Amino acid sequence: MPQGYPPQLATAQAQGPMAPQMSDLSQQFSQMGVGANPAEYQTAVLGGKPQLSALDEAPPAIKLPPNSTCVPSQFVICPPSHKRSTLNAIPRTDKLLKKTKLPFGLVITPFKSQEQGEDPLPVVAEIVRCRRCRAYINPFVQFVEGGRRWKCILCSLSNDVPLVFDYDSATQTQKDRWQRADLNYSVVEFIAPLEYMVRPPMPPVYVFIIDVSYASVQLGAPGVIGQTILSALDRIPNADLRTKVAFVAVDSSLHYFQIRPNSTEPQQMVVGDLDDVFLPSPTDLLLNLHECRQGIECLLSRLESMFKSNHSVGNALCPAIQSAQKLLGALGGKIIVMLASPPTIGEGKVEPRTEGKDLGTPRESDLLRPQNTWYKTVAAECSRTQIAFDTVFIGQQPMDIPTVSGLARYTGGSVFYYPSFMATRKPEVDRFAQEFANHLSARVALESVLRVRASKGLRMASYYGNFFLRSLDLLALPNGLPNHSYAVDIEIEENLTAPVVYFQTALLHTTAYGERRIRVATLALPTTDNIHTVFHHADQVAIASLLSRKAVDRALVAKLEDAREALQHKALEIIGAFKTECTQSSSGATTQLQIPRALQLLPFLTLASLKHTSLRSGNNVPSAMRMSAINSILTLPAEQGVQPYTVARLYSLHDLPPQAGYPDEQTGITVLPPRLGLSAESLLPYGAYLLHDGSDTFLWFGRDVSPALCQSLLNMQDVRMIPSGVITFPDLSGGSSGDGPVAGFELNFQVNNILRRLNDLCHNLWKPVTYVCKEDGEPVLRMWMAQRLAEDMDTSAPSYQQFLSQIRDKVNRGNF
């Protein structure tokens, strides 16, 4: 006999729906938009300063009807860091959705890393799935027929409950069904049995293709790359001692390295005939990281001296990629391309582009298109054999990032760009070394595929991110990365009659420890017929994330100007639709535009996106820099992609609250100071300020800043002693936030802790470089920082107030 139900659910589940009480009915009606509570419908008037603190608030609450879950657990609502919807109340009809003009989609981070203080995801040994649509059991299923069957949330099929469901095979005892993790948590990991494996789990494999041409040597790149990989060897996932690595150095020839187990001497083999690529030693080039450790360390420590006199200007990247394909053909793995010069040899060689005269013109969009299809074709082939690419571009040579980065885009990889890199520039070297080492240490999801399922009547229309689309709902990710995100547009094909709709994502993958697992995240959202409810439960951060991805994706296939206009027009449509459908001034002109409080920052987020490097107009954004920014927009989670990457954080340091930079007494989390508006009006002549956009940090000093502040912050006597430009921000308290501040350097202690907290919020994706910018300092630095002040007018876009005025005029004229 199946186990009984929890007392509070037994009647509802075993004998049918529980008779609703009047309070339940009122709550359900309010959640479904029937007799909705006007107090929930707070609006804001567009005007004045944007309240950026709203970006730190949680998304609108998901309000499900009573008895929506089979177990009353606090963990059934899917965390937005795993999956968030642009709408937390779903229109029941496509007609209603189109009336709102709101975008409907999801932003998914399927392999989100575990953050400090978070519990690990629960792991479930037995997989229970719907036999028709293959959805996984979850907290929202209904048990029927006395608990012997469960009803699928997506297709409504009743499935048998397997006998092992209430049995613990490890202890060989009966277990409490209602304590099962898959019925209590919206995000779980299932241990996949043999039938989920095409082959035994493969080990992690890394092939490093390192540019050692003259251009790379002049930058000092080979030595820094070698030392960075050397310092990161212990961080590369290798728990079962099966991890393999290979190294291919590239100039006009290919340099392979063979190392025998327990040997300390690497043997170099050079292949100069590149017409028919072959491996000089097909079986000995993949090195077991554990068995060949001494030889690998020797090779990496000698990389600089090996090529310090190299004057070869050619770059045989394409033959190197072909050889790496041969090397990984049977195993799969990751190819990390480290480039300091353009590929000049092989089928995929690129020609120099003269972009100066095209920047800021309609022809600029052509610079973002690949020169050839070779890299996309290779990426598609590699995706099928479970090979992924990361591309690392170093220096300012024209390496044609739009073309070569296709390797990463279509295999789920990452793109790194370090235009200011030189071995003599310590802050830039530190940035590269920390970011690349962190990347190597990531616990990747090997041989992974991502599938998105949804309730009947919903269709996944378009996907955005770095992946290869294997079928209409299956994304191939040979090496799934933590904190890489993907967005999907959703269409309503049929009317939604149920009070709740569901979205389930499943990431089938192999862990770095050789386990085959399935990470499943289930999101439940209420449906409504009330347009007010839809507007007031919209998630402005998710909307901004989805719209910016759509805009940059459009920039890659159409025109940059088309992308900008589409982004701006969508914001105009949404504001106009709210005025028409939900305000008393539905027709005619109005001096004040209202917007739901949940969307109060949508105009500002739109303007910030238009001013961001990925979409900024003008002739001062090189295509390489723009393409790098586009890749970040396509892959960053919604939280980091919107802020600080698009909307920077600005804090004043001269009047820092005493609690800022110290742990909160209750949470232990470092307290951040109040945010300031992103405008030059916030910068006072006697002030000092910190601006942080994730990848860069600016310290701005007014001309009249006090000597005492300079002393406490940087150990400088006055502002004139502080050098402009790149600095290494000092830690004057000995490097440990737990030891407390050193007398006289309290401000330095606080700011260091604030910087650590800001990096934690970005999951340490970046190692920011710190720039000192003075009120009367170098114009280039001031202009560069001013580009982050999105409220102000610049050459690329109007000020925020001007932007609002333009929107109001167009809405009043009905031009939307």
UniProtKB/TrEMBL annotation:
It is found in: Cytoplasm; Endoplasmic reticulum membrane; Golgi apparatus membrane. Keywords: Cytoplasm, Endoplasmic reticulum, ER-Golgi transport, Golgi apparatus, Membrane, Protein transport, Transport. Pfam families: Gelsolin (PF00626), Sec23_BS (PF08033), Sec23_helical (PF04815), Sec23_trunk (PF04811), zf-Sec23_Sec24 (PF04810). The keyword Cytoplasm applies. One of its GO terms (biological process) is COPII-coated vesicle cargo loading. Residues 539-640 form the Sec23/Sec24 helical domain. Residues 127-162 form the Zinc finger Sec23/Sec24-type domain. InterPro entries: ADF-H/Gelsolin-like_dom_sf, Beta-sandwich_Sec23_24, Gelsolin-like_dom, Gelsolin-like_dom_sf, Sec23/24_helical_dom, Sec23/24_helical_dom_sf, Sec23/24_trunk_dom, SEC23_SEC24_subfamily. Residues 446-528 form the Sec23/Sec24 beta-sandwich domain. GO terms for cellular component: COPII vesicle coat; endoplasmic reticulum exit site; endoplasmic reticulum membrane; Golgi membrane. Residues 201-439 form the Sec23/Sec24 trunk domain. Residues 670-718 form the Gelsolin-like domain. Belongs to the SEC23/SEC24 family. SEC24 subfamily. This is COPII subunit. It comes from Coemansia thaxteri.
